Amino acid sequence: xxxxxxxxxxxxxxxxxxxxxxxxxxxxxxxxxxxxxxxxxxxxxxxxxxxxxxxxxxxxxxxxxxxxxxxxxxxxxxxxxxxxxxxxxxxxxxxxxxxxxxxxxxxxxxxxxxxxxxxxxxxxxxxxxxxxxxxxxxxxxxxxxxxxxxxxxxxxxxxxxxxxx
Length: 165
Hints:
alpha+beta
């Protein structure tokens, strides 16, 4: 496991009655209300900070996946999609790839942050955008800028992330 991710420990061992998984509602309470609203109250717009946090987590995971897949792009994408699903983050798929021009579009269905949340008229998956950026950087060996272009909280069908590197 990647260096920082080892801090997760073994939730199943530590929670013999409740188990390793927590309800999505609790995650959203922590993520959307606790973290995002709390930080917004302290520093104003916290989206950049939340993006950076996601990027840090993503880089660790991306590096671990890169080491397992040896840099094979197809294997890297498949392993990343499997890990994103296993973690319950969502169902990830590449919807457009133009690696020669440094473009990639990724769609995440059943996003843990926003799928089934109310339409509030703004995109909210800043952590996930940063996460995607961080995961991709070890593979492409360049800075990856990711923008969420579709979000369930905008009434759109899933989250779409435009990646430029």
